[in-house]
């Protein structure tokens, strides 16, 4: 008698697309991902509390993937907008390392993993 | 006639202490920082909405600093607890890179910058 543990196809997650073409230190990138995660979490909590709860209860999974340009960020944002996927693009205040106002990353979701994989499934880990 | 823009001493921020002794890739570390930021943001929003609003309005600043052991994480957590500073220690689910349940980082605040600097002012950027 044993129970099979598996990751359900419709698990919920958040995906963060981080620009790899910028010269960000790892702490800087971590702070940008944190910005995206907070904005996306708060906005989904307001817009769709049930989706927020599903994500929190399933371990608030977050995955950080790489993109290679500002243009990529905006292309993925346009796709997310078209599909009604919660998202937030992040600009850095630019006190250190980057020019003020640099777009650094895009938070997507939280949403069903399958929906996000359709958009970002080809991207590599940051 | 001009206006002096300055960073106020009592600006609000969140500080995330990240273990530098673990073999985390930069995307993994970014996801851990994002976990800490979301947990800290949600808990301060519930416990102290005015502090949450001050932090959001002042640009939801986040700084990621390095510590070098699990023990450091817990020592800083104990200090934060003793001083009534909102905090959250993060364990990784351990699906990749780390052993399941590894303590990876500690989120502190958001709180007054001066209060956090007293605790973490000696630490280096992650």
Helix and strand arrangement:
2 copies of one chain form a homodimer.
Chain A: E1 12-19, H1 26-47, H2 49-57, E2 62-67, H3 70-82, E3 87-91, E4 103-112, H4 113-120
Question: Could you explain the architecture of this structure?
Answer:
The structure is a homodimer of 126-residue chains. Chain A is α+β, with helices and mostly antiparallel strands and 126 residues long. Chain A has four helices and four strands, in the order E-H-H-E-H-E-E-H. In chain A, helix 1 (26-47) crosses helix 2 (49-57). Chain A is globular, with a radius of gyration of 15 Å. Mean pLDDT of chain A is 92; it is low at 3-7. Chains A and B meet through strand 1, helix 1 and strand 2 of A and strand 1, helix 1 and strand 2 of B.
Comma- or semicolon-separated keywords:
homodimer, 126 residues, alpha+beta, four-stranded mixed β-sheet, 4 helices, 4 strands, 41% helix, 23% strand, disordered N terminus
């Amino acid at each position: 008698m044993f129970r099979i543990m598996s990751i359900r196809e419709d698990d919920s997650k958040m995906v963060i697309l981080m620009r790899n073409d910028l010269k960000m230190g790892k702490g800087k990138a971590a702070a940008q991902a944190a910005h995206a995660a907070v904005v996306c979490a708060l906005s989904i909590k307001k817009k769709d509390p049930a989706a927020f709860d599903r994500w929190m209860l399933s371990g608030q999974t977050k995955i950080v993937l790489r993109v290679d340009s500002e243009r990529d960020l905006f292309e993925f944002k346009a796709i997310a907008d078209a599909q009604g996927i919660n998202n937030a693009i992040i600009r850095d205040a630019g006190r250190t390392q980057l020019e003020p106002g640099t777009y650094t990353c895009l938070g997507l979701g939280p949403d069903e993993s399958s929906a996000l994989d359709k958009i970002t499934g080809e991207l590599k880990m940051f």
